[in-house]
């Protein structure tokens, strides 16, 4: 019985290790995605000649439109 318990624990440890590795991969993928999103935003702003200080006003305007039911 003790032997089986030891095997189960080692199996649990392997599963926990795999979960940790997957969580690390997911965190890296999220960072990569955020970097790509940031790059796309910068490129779009440059293409449309939008300055960073103008961005907040644009976002607020869109939020007001959505709040009033305009898309």
Automatic annotation (TrEMBL):
<protein>
    <submittedName>
        <fullName>Biotin-lipoyl like family protein</fullName>
    </submittedName>
</protein>
<keyword id="KW-0175">Coiled coil</keyword>
<feature type="coiled-coil region">
    <location>
        <begin position="12"/>
        <end position="43"/>
    </location>
</feature>
């Amino acid at each position: 019985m003790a032997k089986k318990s030891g095997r189960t624990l080692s199996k649990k440890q392997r599963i926990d290790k795999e979960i940790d590795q997957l969580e690390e991969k997911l965190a890296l993928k999220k960072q990569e995605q955020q970097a790509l999103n940031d790059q796309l935003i910068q490129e779009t702003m440059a293409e449309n000649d939008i300055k960073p200080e103008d961005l907040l006003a644009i976002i607020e305007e869109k939020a007001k439109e959505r709040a009033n039911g305009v898309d």
